[in-house]
Here is the input.
Amino acid sequence: MSIAVSPVHFTPHRAPVGEVRLVDPALLLSKPQGLMVEYTSRCNLRCKYCSKSNPGDDQIPGRDMDMSGATIDQALAVIARERFSELLLAGTGETTFHKDWIRDLPRLIEAGRAANPRAFIHINSNFAMKYGDAEFAVLSQLDGIMISIDTADRDLTRTMRAKSDLSLIVYNIVRLKAWCEAHGVRMPRLTVNATIYAEAALGIYDLAVMLASLPISHLSLSDLYEFEAVQLNGIRPVGLEDPARFATSVQMIQKAINFAQTRKAYSLSVQPHLMERINALILQMQSGGKAAAQEEVVEEAAASGSRTKMCTQPWTRFTLAANGALFPCCVTDMPAVGNVHEAGEGIDGPRMQAFRRDLLLGQVPAACQACSNAADCSTQELEAQVRAIVAAPH
Here is the structure.
């Protein structure tokens, strides 16, 4: 029993000792490609595995607010100046929960297309709001929409996702397609992201089959992030606590992959971290439950020299939070490294450049050390990637 991907072993970060390295100043400058505009950090749901359910999350500055008119103006200026090839008009919150989104989203879309006619402009959404013709008219202007659906089970959806109604989500998808066809406009590319936790894994094949009846272009399977809310709510990742259940879960994931590949109603991808973790668990189960010795992992890291994260987002893709704060990637659970309301603190400001320098030197920021979106690598490997990015034409 195996998902057909070779196991990958991450190695821990090891800071250089007694070594002082200089960083080429050219490697500290950005090559903007994407921007995530957190139009609102408020949300209509409180899913049990989301950071919005973390205790005290709404009390964190900027984490429960709508983007003001002044910040929207700053966002429009950044978009016009940097000519991003990708704009994600969503963040921690639900974009369509902002009371003025029907008015403001077209402005942001228009700015993005004026700056770069080839830009891909999209949102992430739970699609659990009641939409009508005015809402569908705006949604149809997007190039893509990623919708969160973890299961075909209505009761599990209601339990895990703050009583959201799966039937409403499905209705909105079908209704959007019908609206686009009735008005002769292009249908946005719809992607479904399914978060894989213990309960959802057992029904992932049923979800894969259900989605084949909907106008979905792609299904992505993502691992469960270990937010505080996940632990407090007892949400379990796919694991070896019950070997029989784990074996069934892997079979269902493999069955869903095979269905997508043979039916070809949509494409399917599996988050690398999820693949790697499941493969590691399979090997552990096949070896009688013994994990790789920690000493071997440490020795491997020491032999390879200074380590860091293979992440180029701080050079290419940024987040503009609802309060104007700037972040070096899609994660906002870290100290901001800039602010559009502060002179000189943009995407090439001193704080942003310091963040890049730390990554290049192997001084991995705390927020990045446990990130499952980026693999472990040597500082030389990251530097080579960054050099290629900054040398490429815009």
The two ends are 45 Å apart (CA to CA). DSSP finds 15 helices and eleven strands in the chain.
